Amino acid sequence: MSYPRTANKTQIRQHEAGEKHIEAGKALVRQLSSKASTTPTPGDSKMPASAHAYSPAVQAGSNSRGQASSSRQGPAPDPKQPKQQKAPASAENQPDAGASAQAVPSPLAGRISRPRGPANLQLKVGMLGDSHVGKTSLMVKYVENKFEEDYIQTLGINFMEKIISLRERTVTFTIFDLGGGENEFNQMIPLVCADAAAILFMFDLTRRITLQNIKEWYRQARGFNQMFIPLLVGTKFDVFASFSVDKQRETIAHARTFAKAMKSPLIFTSASHSINVQKLFKIVLSQRFGLRCNVPRMSKVGEPILEY
Ligand SMILES: Nc1nc2c(ncn2[C@@H]2O[C@H](COP(=O)(O)OP(=O)(O)O)[C@@H](O)[C@H]2O)c(=O)[nH]1
Ligand SMILES: [Mg+2]
Asked: Which numeric CATH code is attached to 120-307?
């Protein structure tokens, strides 16, 4: 199986920090506050019907991007600092959507049956893996629905936010992407791992060594965070799919051994061809909040593996 290359050659737009964003943030907080005072109904144009159908609705445009620098470039952000909130845009399911939430654990569970306003749940997701495996590409694809053909040399940590709707709630994914040169990697790992609810351990399906190295990434991550949910993510499935069946089978078996040892889901993705990108984050969401997930599992050779 081979996939046509259809990626856009667009440049990543860096979101500028500063007054403009602070003002925008304040306006959005006001907007959210006013929304919180009314109970949304399916007819409410601001509350998509799909959200009421328990579909974790993913919308475009509700994101921001930041870049933390190495010590050489300036201070890195404190992941514990609260971030500006952005109101979710209208919900729409992406092509590879498929998860549904059965129930959302409410902080007021047992006291009221329905949440009154859009409580915001925060979810930090870290990304670890060798250079060039496709971490930045996956993050940008998920948050901005763009794919950069040209190599993106990441200096420092890139972090991006994406807000999704989940019934009356919003969930803010803050995604921390490990970047930097050889020596900078080690300094940044604690920032990526600290307080992460989930960590994506990413390897390139076309480079075996990157899977071997997951062991070391995992060991290091556990040193900084004992609580995260691990997910083993193979990248560049579009290229991998053209490999011989034997070669694919071998890699799948190898990856399953790692996933089993890590007690983690195994997910093959392609940022360039939008394969399992949305589904990956739906699985993160369902695992984190203990929600039922109806993303179809895939486990045959030739398929983009989805085992969770
Ligand atoms: N064919 C293919 N190439 C990809 C994919 N994801 C990333 N790449 C390419 O792999 C290279 C490294 O990607 P990048 O996101 O910068 O990797 P990082 O160093 O892990 O952040 C770039 O040339 C990307 O265009 C993918 O899904 N398919
Ligand atoms: Mg990168």
From this structure: 3.40.50.300
| DSSP string computed for 269-290 | -BTTTTBSHHHHHHHHHHHHHT
Q: Is 158 in the pocket of ligand 1 (CB under 6 A)?
A: no
Pick from 9, 137, 142, 239 the residue to mutate for probing ligand 1's pocket: most ligand atoms within 8 Å of its CB. 137
Domain ranges of the chain: 120-307
Nearest atom, ligand 1, residue 141 CA: 6
Q: What pLDDT shows up at residue 302?
A: 97
The CB density around residue 52, as the number of other CB atoms within 10 Å, is: 16
Query: What tokens appear for 52 in the block?
Result: 């009421």
What size, in residues, is the chain? 308
Q: Atom 6 of ligand 1 has which residue's CA nearest to it?
A: 134
Whole-number Cα distances in Å, 258 to 83, 207, 211, 234, 302: 34, 15, 8, 11, 19
* Terminal CA-CA length for the chain: 24
Secondary structure (DSSP) of 169-203: EEEEEEEEE----HHHHHHHHHHHHTT-SEEEEEE
For the stretch 43-77, pLDDT in tens is 323 322 222 222 233 333 355 666 654 333 333 44
Nearest CA to ligand 1 atom 25: 149
Q: Pick 260 or 144 by higher pLDDT.
A: 260
- Cβ contacts of 132-136, under 8 Å, gap ≥ 24: 132/204, 133/202, 133/203, 133/204, 133/207, 133/210, 133/235, 134/202, 134/204, 134/235, 134/236, 134/271, 135/177, 135/178, 135/179, 135/200, 135/202, 136/177, 136/179
Place of tokens 């085992």: 307
Return the number of other C-beta atoms located less than 10 Å from residue 94's C-beta. Answer: 18
Q: Is 247 helix (H, G, I), strand (E, B) or coil?
A: helix
What's the DSSP call for residue 165? Answer: E
